[in-house]
């Protein structure tokens, strides 16, 4: 008796377009998720069961165009396929819906509060994060959690995400020499996790302090 393989009838990630050729509206839509990804790569350096996509197509139906979040996090998937990395994120290959999706709102809305929100809910995306950098009166950061098929708003800053094991929030900082408000990951105590740049600077400062102490003791640090 022949066995039917449903996956064999579906296109693979190599056969699907890896971009919709739609440029991002502004630089923040690339920089903000890229910073979150860089921090995860440092914090979860020894973990191989996660993937963070930036401006990558998420295919959920072979007959429909992909959804393209500004950023998304999936847990329980392979971090790397091979040296060519992922071309896109295909649900019938990954067998895991993203745990979190991120949208950075530009000057014009792109369905963040309508079509995308509905699509993410239908897919079962647990957390939907919207960051609106130009807002003044309303909250700039909105974190929605899917409860019984509908998103419920959590407006704290930061917001703890127990299923992720991290919190997400916003505060002013410096990234790539740019001082402004950024999104960051936080630990359970609400303390912000340092960026790779900050970690490197902290390590350099410690090395300088140690070198000064050695010199005060008459020891040349370069000779050690």
From TrEMBL:
Residue span, Putative restriction endonuclease domain: 34-156
Taxonomic superkingdom: Bacteria
UniProt-listed InterPro entries: Nuclease_put_TT1808, Restrct_endonuc-II-like, Uma2
Protein name per the record: Putative restriction endonuclease domain-containing protein
Organism of provenance: Brasilonema bromeliae SPC951
